[in-house]
Amino acid sequence: MTQKFDVVVIGAGPGGYVAAIKAAQLGLKTACIEKYQDKQGKIALGGTCLNVGCIPSKALLDSSWKYHEAQEGFAVHGIEAKGVTIDVPAMIGRKANIVKNLTGGVSTLFKANGVTLLEGHGKLLAGKQVEVTALDGSTQIVEAANVILASGSKPVDIPPAPVDQDVIVDSTGALEFQSVPKKLGVIGAGVIGLELGSVWSRLGAEVTVIEALDKFLPAADEQIAKEAMKTLTKQGLKIRLGARVTGSEVKKKQVTVTFTDADGEQQMTFDKLIVAVGRRPVTTDLLASDSGVDLDERGFIYVDDQCATSVPGVYAIGDVVRGAMLAHKASEEGVMVAERIAGHKAQMNYDLIPSVIYTHPEIAWVGKTEQQLKGEGVEVNVGTFPFAASGRAMAANDTGGLVKVIADAKTDRVLGVHVIGPSAAELVQQGAIGMEFGTSAEDLGMMVFSHPTLSEALHEAALAVNGGAIHIANRKKR
């Protein structure tokens, strides 16, 4: 007998599992299909983010920063630490335990909320029927009043550097190194490349990042990107911009990479090479030819502003649709879709999705950049405040970077908050909360911020927008 559900979700990543839990909480009979297996051959929930993305990379970033601090940052505090070493397998093991706890946590949440887990590969057929192919090859058909496609994304392959997960690895392989490579190459100076490059650089690898674009972090505000380039270079990352990889050759556990830049053809040899040139949507065998769901020219599922596809009752969310490939964007789309299926008029504000790069210092932003606003002809006032003038940052010996607040010159409404520095992601989130409520720079400046905190840097930057900063000299109005 065919199982029937109000909602069937294909994919249990941060979009899919959140959508399934929310739908169940709203009283809908819900199933979620997942095929990803861990190393023990068991189904692991949480998608790329929990298993081989956001969470494990943050675990390694934190471990490697602590090691770096112990080696180079303790003396200033009067702490003597001699002969500090890193046990890489133990660090990787800790990361694996965190992943295991969190993926197991999603299973517990499914049980607590009454979500039915169907193990296997999900494929949308015509008429909102879903075929589930189990790991043993057996199939069953389930019927759904509504289907949510949340199949996620995977790393992009490039022909000049084919991944073998030994010498040439993708982001997944870079989380599994059992020793520190002497020389590490990274193709791609995006979020993933910079984070993974930072991890292994802190542990002692000589890291070169090869980026095809001439501009560093083009999505970030130019002032912040410039500061990031300066800081990361000072930390030891060699970043080669305008460098296009044309080939690679693996010999004796090393890889020689050929690339062209302004100086012509170059070659560099590495012990390991990480390919981090972006991600692409996973739609392989997801849709039957008569499912009715349309893909765009780049392979993403076509959806409207509420994530509805071309088929009534079928939705798609997360990395498989347009917009930023971010876990928090996927999760909020999952909540919105579940709410809409339940009859609520939920919307999502795509203008205020924060972006974060978890290097040290962190780089984060929300809203628009100064360049975007100038390009749109919007007159703006800008306030900045350096962490070098923050008492709390000085106390923590973490004074690099700045906070930047951009406001409309006519209305004073805050249009962008951009931070490079300690706890940048948390400070940007404070900005996002204010912006969601239509805050002006004056509003932020009139609020009481506790002292001494890093948050005061946001307060001072907001005051600086209108020339009222207290703890730095204000720019004279022309």
TrEMBL record:
Name of protein: Dihydrolipoyl dehydrogenase
Description of how the protein assembles with itself and partners: Homodimer.
MF terms (GO), sorted A to Z: dihydrolipoyl dehydrogenase (NADH) activity
Cofactor(s) the protein requires to work: FAD
Note: The active site is a redox-active disulfide bond.
Tagged with keyword Oxidoreductase: yes
Enzyme type, top EC level: oxidoreductase
Catalytically driven reaction(s): N(6)-[(R)-dihydrolipoyl]-L-lysyl-[protein] + NAD(+) = N(6)-[(R)-lipoyl]-L-lysyl-[protein] + NADH + H(+)
Encoding gene (name): lpdA
EC nos: 1.8.1.4
Textual note on the cofactor: Binds 1 FAD per subunit.
Tagged with keyword Transferase: no
Residues annotated as domain Pyridine nucleotide-disulphide oxidoreductase dimerisation: 353-462
UniProt subcellular location: Cytoplasm
Similarity-based family: Belongs to the class-I pyridine nucleotide-disulfide oxidoreductase family.
Source organism of this protein record: Pseudomonas benzenivorans
Keywords carried by this UniProt record: Cytoplasm, Disulfide bond, FAD, Flavoprotein, NAD, Oxidoreductase, Redox-active center
Record domain FAD/NAD(P)-binding: where: 5-334
Pfam families: Pyr_redox_2, Pyr_redox_dim
